[in-house]
Amino acid sequence: MNNTDPLKKAVKDHWEAETCGVRYGEGDEIEKARYTLEPYICDFAQFNKAKNKKVLEIGVGAGVDFVNWLRNGAHAVGVDLTEAAINITRKRVQENLIHANMYSLRTADAENLPFADNEFDIVYSWGVLHHTPDTIHAFREAFRVLKAGGELKAMIYHVRSFTGILLWIQHCLLKGKPYKGLKYAIYHHLESPGTKAYTLDETREFLHEIGFKNINLKTILCAGDLLNIKPSHKYQSTFYKLIWKFYPRWFVKLVGDGFGLNLLIEAEKI
Asked: Rounded to an integer, what distance in angstroms lies between the CA atom of residue 33 and that of residue 40?
């Protein structure tokens, strides 16, 4: 990590304090919550097609997806900016009795991956690369370490989403700053400091410029859009409990995935 970058330090500190998913419990509890709230992850990742492939996961979090790569016979390498995530993931792998020669875990910066060019068959990253200060460079690194014919599977955040709108209403409209856009609201108020979100056109453009081919993008509603998530400590007041209770989830589902926060990326290095 670049220790001179205050934003990256703030991102690291945020996720050291609470690794993604741990508010739902431990071990199997985290896995159950993850795939219940976001059941489309397994179809997107296609863990069952990774046997004997070398997979890099950037941002392992609580290790749920990482363990599933291993269960399906992949040789997986996991990196995360935080020691907390690496420790949780290592414990999860050991609980699943995965042989040590099938995986490795280490702290590393997505913008400066410690791997040779053309090393991996799959680079996978779910909800991570939008947090690093230079997201585009992180995608360049993913491209660099992929083998020719390798596949990128990643999720980043989509600007025109119900989550973005909710944050804009709360932090911009109701505070007399309606001129501040969705990107501003997401950058300053969604998860770690400096979180970014992109349009489909922006995403396709930067992936194309990096050199990715056969780019496939789609957006999908996430648990955050539907307010099905377990609220963090910031949202424990009676006011927020009422919002959670009366939130019009039926309307969000009716409008559909076009306003989903999760932007799913599949692309190849040819």
From this structure: 13
Q: Which helix (H) or strand (E) holds 79?
A: strand 75-80
Token duo for residue 265:
């990326």
Judged by phi (left if over 0) then psi (alpha if -120 to 50, else beta), residue 109 lies in: beta
Q: Which residues pair with 185 in a beta bridge?
A: none
Cβ-defined contacts of 36-42 (< 8 Å, 24+) = 37/222, 37/223, 37/228, 37/229, 38/222, 38/223, 38/262, 40/220, 41/65, 41/126, 42/68
Domain count, the chain: 1
| DSSP assignment of 233-264 | GGG-SHHHHHHHHH--HHHHHHH-GGG-SEEE
pTM above 0.85, yes or no: yes
What residues are paired with 75 via a beta bridge? Answer: 54
Q: What is the CATH number of the domain that holds 113?
A: 3.40.50.150
pLDDT tens figures, 154-205: 999 999 999 999 999 999 999 999 999 999 999 999 999 999 999 999 999 9
User: Which residues 6+ apart lie within 8 Å of 229 measured at CB?
Assistant: 37, 223
Q: Which structural domain range is residue 66 located in?
A: 6-159+192-224+257-268
Q: Which residues of the chain, if any, have pLDDT below 70? A: 1-3
